[in-house]
């Protein structure tokens, strides 16, 4: 389970990745009705900005070794799906 407030303390990239997951969850499971359109649009803009920032940071990182890449994929694969949407919610 990823907790946004903890990941932000680890580092910028980790915090942005956790934020990405929270934003995506909010968009998928967000409010219904009239507020949905405005809030989804705002969250979508924030998600795009976050994704761009992640991509920019990842470009500046040194290339990972094959072992690092496999370990990262294993961590992602073993993470329970959907936990990031409930972890460390963003205030509305």
Supply the number of structural domains. 1
Which structural class do the helices and strands define? Answer: mainly alpha
What low-confidence regions span 5 or more consecutive residues with pLDDT below 50? 82-92
What is the residue-averaged pLDDT?
80
**Global outline:** elongated
Write the topology of this structure.
Layout: H1 4-10, H2 12-28, H3 34-60, H4 66-78, H5 83-86
Helix pairs in contact: 1-2, 2-3
Give a short overview.
Helices cover 74% and strands 0% of the residues. With 92 residues, the chain is an all-alpha fold.
Task: Based on the model shown, name its key terms.
single chain; 92 residues; mainly alpha; 5 helices; elongated
Description:
The protein is mostly helical and 92 residues long. The chain has one domain. It has 5 helices and no strands. The chain has helices at residues 4-10, 12-28, 34-60, 66-78, 83-86. Helix 1 (4-10) runs antiparallel to helix 2 (12-28). The longest helix is centred in the middle third of the chain and has 27 residues, at 34-60. The two termini are 21 Å apart.
């Amino acid at each position: 389970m990823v907790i946004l407030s903890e990941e932000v303390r680890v580092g910028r990239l980790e915090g942005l990745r956790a934020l990405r997951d929270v934003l995506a969850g909010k968009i998928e499971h967000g409010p219904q009705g009239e507020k949905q359109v405005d809030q989804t649009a705002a969250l979508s803009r924030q998600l795009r900005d976050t994704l761009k920032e992640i991509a920019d940071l990842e470009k500046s990182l040194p290339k990972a070794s094959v072992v690092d890449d496999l370990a990262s994929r294993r961590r992602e694969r073993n993470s329970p799906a959907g936990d990031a949407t409930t972890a460390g919610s963003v205030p509305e």
